[in-house]
Structures are given as structure tokens and as C-alpha cells.
């Protein structure tokens, strides 16, 4: 009898070309499927909760596997951690309804974007945050970010050339906080467009530097034009942080 397993992992995306399997590129999905095949002696399809770009990280990433393997969930987590490379970790596994789908049953996702805000670079955060040496006022930026909240068409915050037809998304929360020299943009929504969080982040930075006027995010959203928003922040500061079912 086939089972459906919900697997939770985390990964450092530095060495990977995102989640989804690609030809001639190493991805997280491919690496995970290789590990599962090694353990279960069968190659089951792994369905991910989201696509991620090259260099993007995940504190929490969920996927489901429909399999005939009888391996115990707890033992599977241990076996995966023995086989997976050190930049991918299995955190949890549990059996779910056979119809469960990691992507389509997801209610919302939270991303965070990390900015190392110091005049001096930090070699330990080089691949894990954007270094921005000019002062950022996190309270001011958090007030600006509130304009993202609500149900809008986010064309202005979608990469140019995207083939997505429905650009309406509901942002449930958006805020900026500081922990020492680390500034974190946190945003939760029922879904995200391609590069959406990175463009949101770039827009906040451009507002901070005066390149975009303050209190203009609402008008940028209404413009429904990618060129109205700010630059796209680099991938290495972005993390898929939480998945809600």
C-alpha cells in the first residue's frame, strides 16, 4: 500500500540551482531524490511546497513523497541525515492523507530577507545576507512595508517576462526588524510571484536611499508595472522561513 509522507527539511542554497530538477544543474530536489533512492531502493517523486531560485535558502521547506516504502518516519529522518550532504538537513517526517499536496494545500508562506547593515563586511554572512553599509532605519522601513499588506495585483513586484497570468496575492504581514547589525524584512502571504520578495526588499532599500520617494509603495502597486518598483535584491539574503498548512 502506498503512503504519503510529509517531509520537512532545511537547506543552504549556495551550491544549488534552486529546488526544482534541471538538466545539467545540481538542485535540492534532485539531491533529495538521490538520497531517498539510496535509502529506499526506489526513486519516488518528491513534490515541493515552492520553487526557489539559485542561492536561496530555506529554514523550513516541506515536500511530500508518495511511496510504497515501509520505513518508519523517524528512522527515515535519521537515514536521510546520514546520506544527505551537509548543506541539507532532514528535520521531520510524518504520514499524511494520501491526497495531501505540499504545494496546493499550503495556506501561507513566510519569507525573510537578511541585510547585514554595517560599514564593515562580515565574512561569515557573505553567502547568507546582503551587505548594505549605509544606515537603515528599521522602524521607518517597517512603516513603509505595511503598504504591502492586503490583496493586490503585484505585477510591479514580479520579474519582467514572467508567464504568470494571475498576479493577485494576499500579503498577511510585512515588517522590518533589527537584531544588532542584522536587519530582517519579514513577509507572509498566501503565495508569491517570481522574485516578489527580492523586489519588495530592493524597493525598501531604494526608499531608504531616496531613490524612490517615501510612502509610494501603494502607488507602485497600483501602477502594475515592474519598472515602477525598485531593484531586485540578490538571492543569497532570501530564506523560505515558515510554511503554514
Furnish the topology, listing elements before pairings.
Layout: E1 3-11, H1 28-40, E2 46-48, E3 57-67, H2 73-83, E4 88-96, E5 108-116, E6 130-131, H3 138-145, E7 150-153, E8 168-179, E9 182-189, H4 196-208, H5 217-223, E10 238-244
Parallel strand pairs: 3-10, 5-6
Antiparallel strand pairs: 1-3, 1-4, 2-3, 5-9, 5-10, 7-8, 8-9
Fold and architecture overview:
This protein is of the alpha+beta class and 245 residues long. The chain has two domains: 3-96, 2-Layer Sandwich (Alpha-Beta Plaits), CATH 3.30.70.580; 108-244, Alpha-Beta Plaits (2-Layer Sandwich), CATH 3.30.70.660. Helices cover 21% and strands 30% of the residues. The protein contains five helices and ten strands, in the order E-H-E-E-H-E-E-E-H-E-E-E-H-H-E. The chain starts with a strand and ends with a strand.
Short structural description:
This protein has helices spanning 28-40, 73-83, 138-145, 196-208, 217-223; strands at residues 3-11, 46-48, 57-67, 88-96, 108-116, 130-131, 150-153, 168-179, 182-189, 238-244. The protein has 245 residues and is α+β, with helices and mostly antiparallel strands.
Amino acid at each position: 500500500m502506498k503512503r504519503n509522507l510529509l517531509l520537512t527539511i532545511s537547506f543552504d542554497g549556495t551550491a544549488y540551482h534552486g529546488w526544482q530538477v534541471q538538466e545539467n544543474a545540481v538542485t535540492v530536489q534532485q539531491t533529495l531524490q538521490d538520497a531517498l533512492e539510496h535509502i529506499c531502493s526506489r526513486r519516488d517523486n518528491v513534490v515541493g511546497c515552492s520553487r526557489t531560485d539559485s542561492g536561496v535558502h530555506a529554514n523550513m521547506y516541506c515536500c511530500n513523497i508518495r511511496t510504497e516504502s515501509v520505513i518508519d518516519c523517524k528512522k527515515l529522518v535519521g537515514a536521510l541525515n546520514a546520506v544527505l550532504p551537509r548543506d541539507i538537513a532532514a528535520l521531520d517526517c510524518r504520514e499524511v492523507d494520501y491526497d495531501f499536496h505540499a504545494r496546493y494545500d499550503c495556506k501561507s508562506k513566510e519569507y525573510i530577507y537578511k541585510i547585514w547593515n554595517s560599514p564593515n563586511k562580515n565574512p561569515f554572512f557573505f553567502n547568507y545576507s546582503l551587505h548594505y553599509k549605509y544606515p537603515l532605519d528599521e522602524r521607518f522601513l517597517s512603516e513603509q512595508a505595511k503598504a504591502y499588506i492586503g490583496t493586490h495585483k503585484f505585477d510591479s513586484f514580479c520579474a519582467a517576462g514572467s508567464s504568470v497570468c494571475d498576479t493577485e496575492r494576499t500579503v498577511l504581514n510585512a515588517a522590518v526588524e533589527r537584531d544588532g547589525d542584522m536587519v530582517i524584512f519579514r513577509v507572509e502571504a498566501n503565495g508569491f510571484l517570481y522574485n516578489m520578495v527580492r523586489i519588495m526588499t530592493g524597493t525598501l532599500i531604494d526608499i531608504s536611499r531616496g531613490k524612490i520617494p517615501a510612502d509610494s509603495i501603494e502607488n507602485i502597486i497600483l501602477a502594475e508595472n515592474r519598472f515602477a518598483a525598485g531593484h531586485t535584491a540578490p538571492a543569497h539574503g532570501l530564506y523560505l522561513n515558515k510554511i503554514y498548512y
